[in-house]
């Protein structure tokens, strides 16, 4: 094809594997003026060398490919602003990446789910010495800090960052990380994953958190909820996973004015989880997962008045549906995942919820059933994994 005037090229996955030999090319040789190249899910295992000759390229996506390495020749792409390697097999980057001074978005990570309760399911890339040279970076995910204090301090130089994700943080690295984060005043999203599920993360020393932080994801144990979190007025999304906080730790979150989504996995200890009147006024989505000692969820009248979706998963000791659930008058979807059926069936007729599902993981797929509205048949039918994914994602 004559593609001499082409500026953008997108390759879409057909859904079927396509044979591709080392001599095949997905990029016409005449595409010298390309600025956008999206090869996501393309049937390639090695980095196409012809990409390095696209000197005007600004956007490059190799997402969902089987590529494992990026060649040093990528340094030729001096105009590159986005490098998307999400869900590829890349775990290391060449040092020449640091010569791409216009780079804004560097996304290198993948998920490997051997079971849906696994702690280490996210893999990023080994941190690069001198990463602070990429002064234009706005998104950096997910960097393995690799127990290197110098690298952690380098993050403080990336003052344009809006999104930062790091993995394998040790407790002793916490103070240095907090020192770097304090300099990132433009940060909107922060994700931190501990080195080991049972090791505490020390994030208390962050005295001046990013003022416009909107999304916070903390994966790992916490001795207490960091004091700076309740003061984040712009915070809209919080994920707390494996934190095992004291039972009353969530009280300090209930006054956050813009919080709309809260996900909790083994987040607090205790047998009762109580949502107090007047708390979580803007919350629309709540997930409660694997609270091992939880026996009772209580919702006081006036709590979570805007809640639209509630998911309860793997709380094996929960004796009944949440007390006071009838006060959640805006609740549209209630989901139970791998929960005792006896507790599900305690859901009273006063809970006027349009969609109620209970789901079990069996034989490598989800079985989804629904409790119909009064007057209709009581139980729904089996729903396969694809249907579940599209309905509940």
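Sequence proposed for the structure above (393 residues):
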């Amino acid at each position: 094809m004559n593609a001499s005037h082409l500026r953008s090229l997108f390759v879409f996955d057909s859904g079927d594997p396509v044979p591709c030999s080392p001599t095949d090319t997905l990029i016409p040789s005449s595409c010298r003026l390309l600025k956008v190249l999206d090869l996501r899910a393309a049937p390639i295992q090695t980095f196409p060398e012809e990409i390095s000759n696209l000197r005007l390229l600004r956007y490059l996506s190799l997402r969902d490919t089987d590529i494992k390495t990026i060649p040093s020749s990528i340094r030729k792409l001096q105009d590159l602003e986005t490098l998307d390697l999400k869900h590829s097999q890349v775990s290391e980057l060449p040092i020449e990446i640091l010569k791409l001074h216009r780079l804004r978005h560097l996304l290198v990570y993948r998920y490997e789910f051997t079971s849906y309760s696994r702690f280490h399911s996210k893999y990023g890339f080994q941190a690069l010495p001198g990463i602070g040279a990429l002064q234009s970076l706005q998104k950096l995910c997910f960097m393995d800090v690799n127990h290197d204090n110098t690298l952690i301090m380098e993050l403080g130089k990336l003052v344009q960052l809006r999104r930062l994700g790091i993995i394998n943080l040790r407790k002793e690295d916490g103070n240095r990380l907090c020192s770097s984060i304090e300099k990132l005043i433009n940060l909107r999203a922060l994700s931190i994953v501990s080195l080991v599920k049972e090791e505490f993360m020390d994030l208390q020393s962050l005295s001046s958190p990013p003022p416009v932080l909107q999304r916070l994801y903390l994966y790992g144990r916490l001795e207490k909820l960091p004091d700076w979190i309740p003061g984040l007025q712009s915070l809209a999304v919080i994920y707390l996973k494996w934190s095992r906080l004291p039972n009353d730790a969530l009280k300090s979150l209930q006054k956050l004015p813009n919080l709309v989504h809260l996900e909790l996995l083994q987040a607090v200890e205790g047998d009762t989880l109580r949502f107090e009147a007047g708390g979580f006024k803007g919350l629309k989505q709540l997930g409660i997962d694997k609270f091992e000692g939880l026996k009772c969820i209580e919702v006081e009248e006036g709590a979570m008045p805007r809640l639209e979706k509630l998911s309860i998963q793997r709380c094996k000791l929960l004796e009944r549906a949440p007390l006071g659930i009838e006060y959640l008058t805006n609740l549209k979807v209630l989901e139970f995942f791998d929960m005792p059926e006896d507790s599900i069936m305690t859901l009273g007729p006063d809970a006027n919820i349009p969609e109620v599902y209970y789901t079990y993981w069996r034989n490598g797929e989800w079985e989804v059933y629904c409790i119909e509205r009064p007057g209709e048949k009581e139980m729904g039918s089996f729903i396969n994994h694809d249907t579940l994914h599209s309905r509940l994602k």
